[in-house]
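Our consortium's second objective concerns turning raw sequence data into structural hypotheses that experimental partners can test. To show how far this objective has progressed, the report includes one record in full. It was chosen at random from the queue rather than selected for favorable results. The single chain below, 173 residues long, was entered without modification.
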Amino acid sequence: MDDRFDRRELLLHLGDMLEALSCLANTGRPYAQVARLAKEQDSLQNLSFLRTVAPRMTVAEFGARLASAFFLWPMKLLEAELNRNALASTVQHDLFDGNHDGWKAYVAYMQQKVEWFGTGLPEMKAGTSEIPVPAAASEASPIDSSVEPASLAGWDGPDEKKGWPWPQPGSRS
């Protein structure tokens, strides 16, 4: 079976996923919701698959789930026989766990380019994702605003080694 065009489409999709991850990381907002950023950020407008992830999924969680879902793809795409179920099931399990509607939308999106994607897998249980949202999800910076940055004035001074593991000046140890 000649599946080189399917492999190409899947490889291009992997590139799109990495582009999405890079654009999301560049926002500098790890606790922001991916769905919200996908609507707000111009760089994410043409990555329509981002609208299929769980509505409350944060950028940080998306990155972790994406890495888990797609890390096998390069190896699987280079194997002599394409394991279609392995490619789709890792994405279903790692990126869409608990997000039945999102998975269905993602499969429909993928089948526009790769007809067989997601077919033959067991049905996911219907329901919404139970992704915990941190208290900081209100778009606040995870850095406490009461923390003052350290002064850089002493950085150009002599490099004295004080305290453990170096002995204090004048001590005999």
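The partners drew two points from this record. The two ends are 75 Å apart (CA to CA). Residues 128-157 have pLDDT under 50 and may be disordered. Both points have been shared with the crystallography group to help prioritize constructs.
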